[in-house]
Amino acid sequence: MKKDMSTHSTTRSTVRFVATAAAVLVVGATAGCGTSTPPAVVVTQTVAVPAVQTVTETVEATAPAPAPETADAVVDSSPAVPSKVTVPDGVGMNYQDAQDAWRAVGLHVAPANDATGANRIPVLDANWVVLSQDLKPGSKVAADSFITATIKKYTDG
C-alpha cells in the first residue's frame, strides 16, 4: 500500500508541473505579439506516468495583445539643459565645493592639474584649494563644456 501512495503523490506532482508548464507556454507564446488581433494559442500536452495512467489535456486560450506604443505615448522625462551657462568662480574654494558649483550649472569636471608639478591625484578633494580654472569665471559657455582646475594641497604652503 505504501508503494501505491508514493506513486499517487508522484502522479499529482507531475500533473501539477505539466499544468504549470502549459500556463507558461501560453503566456510565453502570446508575449511580445505586436498584432492588433490577439492570436489563438493551442497547447496540447501528454503526460506519461509510469505504471499509473496517461493524461492528455488540450488548452486553448486567447490572450489580449498589448497596445502598440506610439510616438505620442513616449515622454522624455529628462530636464531640458540650457544651451549656455555662466561659469561659477571656484578660485579660492576647496576643490570639492568648486566641483559641486561647476556641476550644478551643467559643466563636466576634468581631472585637475597639480600646481606643484608632482602630478598628484587628490584623494580627499576638500583638502585641496583651487588656484585657477581654465574657463573664465562669469563667462557664458555650452552647458556640457569641460572645466579643468589647477589645485594644490592646503599644506603645500
Strand content: 25-35%
Main sheet? 3 strands, mixed
N/C terminus separation: 93 Å
State the helix count.
Answer: 2
Structural class: alpha/beta
**Helix fraction by DSSP (H/I, runs of at least 4):** 10-25%
Shape: elongated
Order of helices and strands: HEEEHEEEEEE
List low-confidence stretches. 22-30
Number of strands: 9
Mean pLDDT: 76
Radius of gyration: 34 Å
User: In which order are the strands of the major sheet placed?
Assistant: 5-9-6
Concise overview:
The chain is of the alpha/beta class and about 160 residues long. About 25% of the residues lie in helices and about 25% in strands. The longest helix has 29 residues, at about 1-30.
